[in-house]
Amino acid sequence: MIFLKNNHSTKGSIAIYLVMLALTILLGASIGLAAIFLGRLQLVGSIDKSVKAFYAADTGIETLLRVEYCLDTYPYNPPVQRRDCIDDIIGIPVPGVCAGSGGGENRMNCRKEVMAAHESRDKVPVDGRIDNIFSSGATYTVCKDPASDCNIVSPGANCTSAEFCAKSVGSFEGTLRAVSIIE
Q1: Which helix or strand (DSSP H or E) is residue 152 part of?
Q2: Is residue 122 part of a domain?
Q3: Boundaries of domain holding 68
Q4: Which pLDDT belongs to residue 102?
Q5: Is 49 a residue whose pLDDT tops 80?
Q6: Confidence (pLDDT) at 160
Q7: In-domain check, residue 142
Q8: How many angstroms separate the CA atoms of 115 and 95, rounded?
Q9: What is the C-alpha separation between 70 and 87, in angstroms, rounded?
Q10: Reduced to 3 states, what is the DSSP secondary structure of residue 140?
Q11: Which of 36, 52, 88, 167 could, after both became Cys, cross-link 172 (CB 3.0–4.6 A)?
């Protein structure tokens, strides 16, 4: 009987060993899957930031194109209609350079002045929003300063267009995305 008892405890030892081996394999597989899924979650988070920055940049270009629409629709006379059209877009009085008639360089200066005024205005909500800052915290910049820091350029070496080129940079939590146009 002692012989049978020892044989029986050996079988129990092997069963415990096999259970421990199976649990170790399952634990390793679980840790591997968790590492894969955590990496995917981080990727999804960065995609969310990228999309918000991209849409902010897109909004900057759309704002500029709406100003361009006003310049095309109400080119010279009467300047009041042009001013009203641009006022509706940026929500503040139009810079003086846009009020008069003229084309060419006057239009370029108007684009720059309007976008700079739009982006640098007091950051006080108008109708529950701040123009180039979204509720998510995303922002866009087309033209901070018409004289020195502006992404609206005349035709030339860096712009192959007959009218102008522009770039809007969207930002969200350190992620930057840009949208460029050639008009």
Answers
A1: strand 152-153
A2: yes
A3: 49-182
A4: 57
A5: yes
A6: 80
A7: yes
A8: 10
A9: 10
A10: strand
A11: 52
